[in-house]
Amino acid sequence: MKSRVCGWMLGSLVAGWGAWAACEMPAHDVPRELRIDLGEGVTLELLLVKPGEFLMGSPATEEKRRNDEAQHLVRITRPYYLGKYEVTQEQWVRIAGRNPSEEVAPQKPVHCVSWSDAREWLSNLQVRAGGLLPSGMVFRLPSEAEWEYACRAGTTSAFSFGEAAMAGEYAWHYHNSSQQIHQVGLKQPNPWGFHDMHGNIAEWCLDVLTPYQFAPGETVTDPLGPVVNDAAVASGAEQAHIVLRGGNWARTLQHLRSARRLSTSGWLRNEFIGFRAAAGPPLETKADSGDGTPPAKP
Length: 298
What we know:
The chain is α+β, with helices and mostly antiparallel strands. The chain has helices at about 5-20, 90-95, 115-130, 145-150, 165-170, 230-235; strands at about 35-40, 40-50, 50-55, 70-75, 80-85, 140, 200-210, 220, 240-245, 260-265, 275, 280. The protein has one domain (about 45-285): paralog of FGE (formylglycine-generating enzyme) (Alpha-Beta Complex), CATH 3.90.1580. About 20% of the residues lie in helices and about 20% in strands.
């Protein structure tokens, strides 16, 4: 079955996008949710994230913070969509045709997928359904900054749900997961409607983990770390560690904090790693050489 979006929603989205991006119409006229029909009753749901500013990283007083989380002001200038849930196994199969997951269950997050696997899936999704996106947008992984902006959802606490004592209502982690992955969406969403941003499965981001780059008092606009070449990552020639966010079902709460930065080699596949789809302006042209040569570090 060919992918499609309900006609009224797509028409409204395409008609309204350019005007809103130019600040000619209120943001509430832009659809909050985008549903992509993958066939056989399987849909991919993405929520709109509006431009804005947020404090990325953690304050010096945050418990269990690390020294790579220096807090700084970030400005996101362009709207994008992010998956309401982590990509599930049934969604993966509708595009890829097979399920690589170790623990098979249609509604659980797909796992045992490398960074390049996730990018290939999104590229194939673009071929199949990219025409349903607003002009100038593509399916891709979120940047690390986009991920944290959506995870925080306007909050400044260590977790988007506030106190760690509330974690059981919002996150699957070491102490409540029974040491297994869980179906998406069983826990409460964050203030912007995203489920499982904390815990369940660790999520690939687009960029390589690098130290934050900012001057005192500087507002950093649309930050993006280096983006390495897929072929180099897949071959093992590129050892750069790709950003992982959100922690996972086997991690303690300190690893699930909004600011917590994790990373690993992009070729790694295991039961702890999956991803969340994004759709927005292309980003990798900022750093991807395209010829297998790693980009210069900032």
